[in-house]
Design goal:
With about 90 residues, the protein is α+β, with helices and mostly antiparallel strands. A two-stranded antiparallel sheet has the order 1-2.
């Protein structure tokens, strides 16, 4: 039983050392995505985040609904506030 435990610990130490070495070798950078690729999120461009008028939860402008200058996190909350949305 002691030998099995020893080899399991040894394998774990070798694995951790390998992953550490690989991270240092690769520079620990995420994979690059071309600029025009769909789903590309440029981290340099920050998106505005607003609180929902109904529930107060903060959401990015692209995932919410803006009705006459009032921001809602979704159509359901806009309708719940009495807004006429399609």
């Amino acid at each position: 039983m002691g030998r099995v435990l020893f080899f399991l610990v040894l394998a774990a130490v070798v694995w951790i050392a390998y992953k550490s070495w690989a991270r240092k070798r690769d520079g620990d950078q995420p994979p690059r995505v071309p600029k025009g690729a769909p789903g590309n999120l440029n981290t340099n461009e920050k998106e505005a985040i607003y609180p929902c008028k109904h529930c107060g939860a903060y959401s990015p402008l692209s995932s919410g609904v803006m009705v006459e200058g009032r921001f809602y996190c979704g159509l359901a909350h806009a309708k719940a506030e009495g807004e006429k949305v399609q």
